[in-house]
Write a structure and sequence with these properties.
Blueprint (H helix, E strand, L loop, with lengths): L1 E8 L3 H8 L22 E4 L2 E4 L1 E4 L6 H11 L8 E8 L6 H16 L5 E6 L6 E7 L13 H17 L14 H8 L5 H13 L5 H10 L2 E4 L8 E4 L6 E2 L9 H14 L1 H13 L25 H13 L13 H6 L3 H14 L4 H31 L3 H53 L12
Antiparallel strand pairs: 1-5, 2-3, 4-6, 5-7, 6-7, 8-9, 9-10
Helix pairs in contact: 3-4, 6-7, 10-12, 10-14, 12-14, 13-14
């Protein structure tokens, strides 16, 4: 399995060549150093065989920079995209360094032939073998620049896949594409992201499902609709509250249609009794159509107590459904949307704090708060500019120290005002989603506990 990518280099061919041939990126200690701008040749002896891990295609590795520069100067094309940098990364443990480098050189030959100069270097600094390919952007015969468009990328990936097939390596059938950095680390840290919650629901359902009917029923009770129809091209999963489906292969290995059927067959064969027991416990708690009423004793008079309304009531209800309130009796939300919203508890906590501290009752008061904050920021910013001028012109150390202290106080006040302004803007931004999530969660609770009380709540005027 190989992952490929290519991008333009606009600053310096020398820099990218030096990076590609950096001896610190390899796993061997023996180094044959060449010129600082050229490729470093990496050689080591494995038995009686010599292995080279930096190779030039249509150029010499030791003088790659000089040769590429000469071609660019000959055709007067030394500006713009001076080179292209591509990489080819392999699955951990699937290739040897010799095979990885061989595939990289073959990829360069098939992709660019005898038209462009390419340096191929094999690295191991990330824990996986991967090739860096540095391509001169100028054709060495006619001076035409390489057209690195979307078609070129697809051709690069296609050739790489062909090489993997020819050498018995796995090929990615359904590439996921680039995962946003924030989402990547959230999933890596097992935060309740959309995909993590889907995996969790499938895993839980597969602990008690020995057939498709049971599996689809359990996943629906957990808030998801699974489509494993063999006549459909892709198996999908979606929330019961959403029409947008996600293809199962995007969840990773072990979650596609074939893997789910294999896991159900293994459970039926090896541990069917435990699956029946877990399924009985799961369905038993839903068989009661009534709720248990509890008596609570409170201080004061409920008739004269002030009713909580507006944004405060909205957020208190939201935090209760999220399982944050009450503190001594936490519970997990039922709907996938609310479980995913648990990722943003710090954000919602800051919003509640701002609402309570500034007595914000509705969206109009939040908008007024933002306007007041902006006007205060302008006033304090103007005052701080004046302090900066006074500090520059002041020669008395004591007076200067006082001015610096005032400036620092202004900076702290501005930081707090800007922070509060962002929090207030997020209240307006999150308001429709919070109302939608509350409605979804209450519908889920009604189905889950078997009762449906129509209650009208006025969170906001």
């Amino acid at each position: 399995m190989a992952v490929t990518k290519i991008w333009a280099v606009t600053d310096s061919v020398n820099r990218v060549l030096s990076y590609a041939a950096n001896p610190d990126k390899t796993i061997y200690s023996d180094i044959c150093k060449a010129l600082h701008y050229a490729s470093d040749e990496r050689k080591t002896v494995i038995g009686e065989e010599k292995a080279m891990y930096v190779t030039g295609v249509n150029c010499t590795a030791e003088t790659a920079f000089a040769e590429m520069k000469a071609v660019q100067e000959r055709f007067d094309k030394t500006v713009g995209n001076v080179a292209y940098h591509a990489y080819q990364s392999f699955k951990t443990g699937e290739v040897t360094p010799q095979l990885a480098h061989k595939l990289g050189v073959e990829l360069a030959k098939r992709m660019w032939g005898d038209q462009y100069q390419v340096l191929v270097a094999t690295h191991f600094n990330t824990g996986t073998y991967h090739n860096h390919l540095v391509i001169n952007s100028v054709n060495m015969w006619n001076g035409k620049k390489f057209n690195c468009n979307e078609g070129a990328y697809w051709k690069l990936r296609s050739i790489s896949d062909e090489l993997c097939k020819e050498n018995g390596l796995t090929v990615i059938k359904n590439p996921k594409g680039k995962t946003p950095r924030k989402l990547y680390f959230a999933e890596k840290n097992d935060e309740p992201t959309r995909y993590n919650l889907m995996r969790e629901a499938i895993d839980k359902a597969l602990t008690m499902s020995t057939n498709l009917k049971t599996f689809t029923y359990v996943t629906k009770q957990l808030g998801y609709v699974i489509d494993l129809n063999p006549y459909h091209k892709y198996a999908t999963i979606r929330s019961v509250n959403s029409k947008k489906a996600t293809r199962l292969y995007r969840l990773g290995e072990g979650y596609d249609r074939d893997a789910i059927y294999d896991r159900m067959r293994d459970l039926l064969k090896n541990n069917s009794q435990e699956a029946y027991r877990l399924y009985y416990e799961f369905t038993e708690k839903k068989s009661f159509g009534v709720t248990i009423q509890k008596a609570h004793f409170v201080k004061g008079n409920l008739k004269t107590a002030k009713k909580i309304t507006g944004l405060k009531a909205l957020y208190f209800r939201y935090l209760y459904l999220l399982g944050v309130l009450p503190k001594n009796k936490k519970h997990k939300p039922l709907s996938p949307e609310m479980r995913e919203a648990c990722r943003w508890l710090d954000r919602h906590t800051a919003q509640v704090q701002l609402i309570c501290d500034n007595h914000l009752t509705d969206i109009f008061s939040v908008e007024a708060f933002i306007k007041n904050a902006d006007s205060e920021i302008k006033l304090i910013s103007g005052y701080r500019k004046m302090l900066y001028r006074d500090i520059d012109s002041c020669h008395n150390p004591d007076e200067k120290a006082k001015l610096v202290a005032k400036r620092d106080d202004c900076t702290k006040a501005l930081a707090q005002l800007r922070k509060d302004g962002k929090t207030a803007a997020r209240i307006i931004e999150d308001n429709p989603k919070i109302k939608e999530n509350i409605l979804i969660e209450e519908n889920m609770r009604s189905r889950y506990f078997g009762f449906n009380k129509s209650r009208k709540r006025g969170y906001e005027r």
